[in-house]
Amino acid sequence: MSTSNSYRYRVVDVFTENPLLGNPLAVFPDARGLTAVLMQKIALELNLSETTFVFPSSRKDCAANVRIFTPRYEMQFAGHPTIGTSFVLLDEGIVPKGTTLFQLEEKVGPVPIRVDPSPQPLIWLKTPPITFEALADRAICAKALGLELHDLLDIAPQLVTAGNPTFFIAVENKEAVDRAWMDLSGVKAIKGSYADPVCIFIFAPTPTGAYSRMFAQEYGIIEDPATGSSTGPLAAYMMKHGLMPTTSETRIISEQGVKMGRRSVLHVQINGEEGTEGIEVGGHVAPLVEATMTLPSST
């Protein structure tokens, strides 16, 4: 006689106040018993940008251990999974309701979470340390994105990472962002000899922050509606090149996912001069689905 194991999961839309917008995320609030191989298979089955699996933390200073999978890879850190999982943990009382400060254990290390309480709370994560790495050629980037060189700002595209390596490419306006396209060969052309999988983040500065798109074919993601792990580095890159709005030096918004019909609003709080006290990325979360996945015990 065959037996089975059931695992309950939630689907929430992150970086939006409205269901069916933002970036969908599947969260397994109690993943005990699942192996890394099974988690990867489940992430591929659900085929969302990311799926998270929650385990008891190995650290006393963290509320839970969260493992994050794209359809192809396990991630060191990712933004919308961190914020969406935080919402589920609070909503289910795994983190006591009303808690405004806690940490999640991820592969990158402890990730601080801050909650602005309200009926639909704004949940913030503190971006891990940001590093600036390899530069990319503007002409190669333009060709890879199907754009003309004059569509790009006269700023060197660069790999910037807080645990999720991302090449940032600044363009003239929203129209250029929307015209861009990307395939795997384009990703490889931009990254050159860089060995690890990367994201390609294209954006145009706006009066309130940035209008953005992100491509990640190497992670199994054609286009991502919202990329929280790249948005802290986006702010750092914009500060480095003087692209921040003149009306505010501490708070900006990155609008992402519009072209694909999944408008996402990512809030960015810059703490201290030039982010010396950290960069936070925040967003709302809209719950959508509660379901159970049944797996054969021999899986």
Which architecture name of the largest domain does CATH use? Roll
Estimated share of beta-strand residues: 35-45%
- According to CATH, what is the class of the largest domain? Alpha Beta
The fourth-level CATH homologous superfamily of the largest domain is: Diaminopimelate Epimerase, Chain A, domain 1
Q: Average the pLDDT over all residues and give the rounded result.
A: 94
- Class inferred from helices and paired strands: alpha+beta
Main beta sheet: strand number and arrangement? 18 strands, mixed
Helix content: 10-25%
What does this structure look like?
The protein is built from six helices and 18 strands. It is of the alpha+beta class and 299 residues long. The chain has two domains: 136 residues, Roll (Diaminopimelate Epimerase, Chain A, domain 1); 148 residues, Diaminopimelate Epimerase, Chain A, domain 1. The protein has an 18-stranded mixed sheet that branches. The longest helix is centred in the N-terminal third of the chain and has 13 residues.
Secondary structure elements and their pairing?
Elements: E1 4-14, E2 23-28, H1 36-46, E3 50-55, E4 64-69, E5 74-75, H2 79-91, E6 101-106, E7 109-116, E8 122-126, E9 131-135, H3 138-144, E10 158-161, E11 166-170, H4 174-179, H5 184-191, E12 199-206, E13 209-216, E14 221-224, H6 228-240, E15 251-256, E16 264-270, E17 279-283, E18 285-296
Parallel strand pairs: 2-3, 4-6, 11-12, 13-15
Antiparallel strand pairs: 1-2, 1-18, 3-4, 4-5, 6-7, 7-8, 8-17, 9-10, 10-11, 12-13, 13-14, 15-16, 16-17
List keywords for this structure.
299 residues, alpha+beta, 6 helices, 2 domains, 18 strands, Diaminopimelate Epimerase, Chain A, domain 1
